Amino acid sequence: MDSKTKNRTAATPPPDGGRPTLKTIAFMTGLGITTVSRALKDAPDIGAETKERVRLVAKQIGYQPNRAGVRLRTGKTNVISLVLTLEEEIMGITSPMVIGITEVLAGTQYHLVVTPYSSTKDPLGPIRYILDTGAADGVIISRTEPHDPRVTLMTERHLPFATHGRTEMGITHPYHDFDNERFAYEAVRKLVGRDRRRLVLLEPPPNLTYHSHMRTGFERALRDFGAESVSFHQVNIDYSLVAIRDAFEKLMRSSDAPDGIVSGSGSGAIALIAGVEAARKKLGVDADMVSKVPSDFLRWLRPEVITMHEDIRLAGRELAKAVIGHIEGRPPETLQSLSQPEFQPPVSASMKT
Hints:
6-stranded parallel sheet; 6-stranded mixed sheet; 3 domains; Rossmann fold; 434 Repressor (Amino-terminal Domain); disordered N terminus; DNA-binding; single chain; alpha/beta
C-alpha cells in the first residue's frame, strides 16, 4: 500500500459517515468505484497490485458487500441456510457442523445463516419461508426421512440443497451421510468379541432414514455372530436423558437385562450409563458398551466405553461443498459422500502416542 493510501486509510473517515462501501474504498485508494468493484471480484483486466491494494483497504476498514445490493444486481443472496432442529443442539451436533461449513464458505462469497426449528412443528415451515422470501441460494437440512417432503419441495422448486443423511424416494440429490449400518455391525462384533451375547440397541427415531440403516446393521451382525437382541423400544435417542435413564434402569433390574449395549448417541450413552449404575450394576463388569460419539468427551469421562467417532465437522465441510456444487449446476450424483466409523483408542493408549 502506498503512503497516500495509508494516510487516507488511517486519518480520513468514510465520506458518507456510515458503514464502509465501495465509495469508501474508492475514496481511500484514489480509484474509481467501478475499478474497486472489479478488483474485489478478481476481474482479469485489473492488475495484481491494484487488487491487492483494494483488498487491503477493504479488510482494514471492515468492508462487507451489501447483500441487498448484491441481490438486486444478481438475484442472489450469497447465503447458505443450515436448517437444524433443537434436538441436534442438545446432541452436540450444531457447533462442529457450523465450524465445518464455515471452513469451506470462508473461501467463497457465501455466508451461513442457521435456521433452528422444533421437530414437533411442521418441518416444511423453514423451507417454505426460504422459498417464499428468497432468503438463501442454497439449503442444508438434516434428520432426513425415507420419503422426505422437504426434498420433494426443494426439488420441485429448483432450490439447491444438500442433506445430512440419505432418502429412499428415487430422487438423486446431494448428501453426506455416516455409515450407521456399518457402525452397528462393527459394534456388535466388538461386543461379541468380549463374550457379550445379549445385546440392546438405543436407536434413532423410527421415522428417520438412518434408523433402518442402524437397525439393519445391528440385526445382520446378530445373525452373523450368534448373538441375540434384547428388546428396548420404549425410548429412542430423541427422548430426554431422564426418560432414557429411567427406562434403562428398569431394563437392567429385570430378568431380561442385557450384557452388551450399542448406543446410537453419545449423549444417550451418558443416560444409559446412569441407568446401569442406578440398577447397582457396573459398566465393564456386568455389561459392555459401544457408543457412537461426535467428540472425545465420553472417551475421557468413561474410558471403559468403546467409542466410534462420527466426524460432524467433516460432515459440515462435505455438505458445504455439496450445496455449492448444486448451486453451480454440478450433477447431484457427483455430490454424494459417505463417511466410515472409526474406533477410538482407549484414553490411556492415546496418551502414550
